Amino acid sequence: MKAVKGYTKSDYIAICKEEEGGEIFNFKSIDKAAEYIVKQIENYDIDLPVAYDWEDWTNFNTYNVSFYELTEIANAFMNELEKSGYDSMLYSSKNYLENIWLKTKHKTWLAHYTEKTNYTKDYLLWQLCENGEIDGIDGSVDIDVMYLK
Q1: What is the pLDDT of residues 71-107, one digit of tens each?
Q2: Dist. CA 145–CA 110, nearest whole Å
Q3: How far is it, in rounded angstroms, from Cα 70 to Cα 60?
């Protein structure tokens, strides 16, 4: 989850396992995970959408869920955030957006490391690299472009 510093995939899975006695994916667990995120950010002035960021593709087959179910899990999580008054979006690479994720009503944060993207669907943010350099910041940084109307 990109929005909460220090909140990792392992934390998310642990919350889900604790709630459902070992089951990682179900909607009750998603409610609890979304509730946890809301508690972490409720004292901050959040003016951008909170991103759902799934990057565990290496282990995907071990979770025994379909791409449809994964999209429904993401939608359920983002819907819960919206019920709490936060805007939400899906963060993913161009490849997964085009080939894995099913259509969603939520905004998109596109990760496509190139100088000019050829992604054809709508997106709010575009992460064009993860190795950018900015004076005064040690180490590499993500470079993102946000499109405003």
Answers
A1: 888 898 999 999 999 999 999 999 999 999 998 999 9
A2: 10
A3: 10
Cβ neighbours around 101 below 10 Å, total = 17
CB distance 117 to 98 below 8 Å: no
- All residues at 6 or more sequence positions from 96 whose CB lies less than 8 Å from its CB, including other chains: 57
How far is the CA of 27 from the CAs of 6, 38, 67, 136, 141, in angstroms?
23, 16, 15, 43, 34
What is the pTM (predicted TM-score) of this model?
A: 0.78
Using an 8 Å Cβ cutoff, are 81 and 33 in contact? no
Question: 3-state SS of 49-113?
Answer: CEEEECCCHHHHHHHCCCHHHHHHHHHHHHHHHHHCCCCEEEEEEHHHHHHCCCCCCCEEEEECC
Q: Name the helix (H) or strand (E) containing 6.
A: none
Instruction: Determine the straight-line distance between the first and last CA of the chain, rounded to whole angstroms.
Output: 26
pLDDT digits 0-9 by tens, 20-39: 444 444 445 777 788 888 98
